[in-house]
Specification:
By secondary structure, the chain is an all-alpha fold. It has helices at 2-27, 32-53, 59-62, 64-83, 85-89, 92-123, 127-148, 161-175, 180-201. The protein has one domain. The longest helix has 32 residues, at 92-123. It is globular, with a radius of gyration of 17 Å.
Length: 213
C-alpha cells in the first residue's frame, strides 16, 4: 500500500513538474529538443540530486516510467503549444497561472517523495537529513530549469517556495509514524496550498531592494 502511494505521488510530481518545465521552455522560445530537455530536467532533476547525495543510482533511470512520462508530457505540451500558439500568445496571464499551478502540485508531491525516499534508505532517525532532502527533491528540478533559462532561480526570491516545501516536509515527517497515507496527503496539500495562496495573494519573503548604481 505504501509503495503504491509513493508511486502515485512520484508520478503526480513527474507529470506536474514536466508540464511546468515544458511550458517554461515554450515561453522562452526553445525548440522541441529544448522543451523535452527542460521538461525532463524539471521533472527528475531534484530526485537525481537527492539520489546522488544518498549514494545510489538515480531512480529516474531505474524506474524508467517516470523519465518517459516526463518526456511524454513535455512533447504533448510542445504539440499543444504549436496548435494553440495564437490563443496562448494572447493569454499570457493564464499561461503564468497554469505554470504556477503545476509547479505548486509538483513541489508538493516531490517534497513528500523526497522525504519518504530518504526514510526508506534507513535515515528516518536523522530528521534534519530527511527535511533537507525533501526540500532538495522538491526544488532541485526547478532550480536546474531556471539556471538553464539563465535567470535567478524562483526558489531564491519568489512566492515562498522554500517555506512551502519545508512546511509540507515537516508535516509528512511528523505524521508518517501514525499514518503513511495521511502524512502524504497532508504534506502534499500543505505545500500546494501555500504555493497557490502565495501566487493568488502575492506573498513573498522579506527582501532588500537592490542597490542603485
Amino acid at each position: 500500500m505504501e509503495e503504491h502511494l509513493l508511486w502515485i505521488a512520484t508520478m503526480v510530481g513527474t507529470i506536474a513538474c514536466g508540464i511546468s518545465g515544458a511550458m517554461t521552455a515554450v515561453d522562452r522560445g526553445m525548440d522541441m529538443v529544448g522543451v523535452l530537455v527542460l521538461g525532463a530536467i524539471t521533472a527528475v532533476g531534484g530526485g537525481i540530486i537527492r539520489d546522488l547525495i544518498l549514494d545510489r543510482i538515480p531512480q529516474a533511470f531505474v524506474e524508467s516510467e517516470f523519465f518517459l512520462a516526463a518526456l511524454g508530457v513535455s512533447l504533448l505540451v510542445f504539440l499543444l503549444a504549436m496548435r494553440w500558439y495564437n490563443t496562448i500568445q494572447h493569454r499570457r496571464r493564464l499561461l503564468d497561472n497554469v505554470i504556477n499551478l503545476f509547479d505548486a502540485v509538483g513541489l508538493g508531491a516531490y517534497a513528500v517523495v523526497g522525504a519518504r525516499a530518504t526514510i526508506s534508505m534507513g535515515y528516518g532517525d536523522n530528521r534534519l537529513l530527511v527535511l533537507v532532502l525533501g526540500l532538495v527533491t522538491a526544488v532541485g528540478g526547478g532550480v536546474l530549469r531556471d539556471l538553464l533559462c539563465v535567470r535567478v532561480p524562483f526558489v531564491l526570491y519568489k512566492r515562498v517556495y522554500v517555506v512551502a516545501a519545508l512546511l509540507g516536509t515537516l508535516a509528512y515527517i511528523f505524521l508518517s509514524p501514525y499514518s503513511e497515507w495521511l502524512a502524504m496527503a497532508v504534506g502534499m496539500a500543505t505545500v500546494t496550498g501555500v504555493r497557490v495562496l502565495a501566487s493568488v495573494f502575492h506573498w513573498d519573503m522579506p527582501r532588500i531592494r537592490p542597490f542603485e548604481e
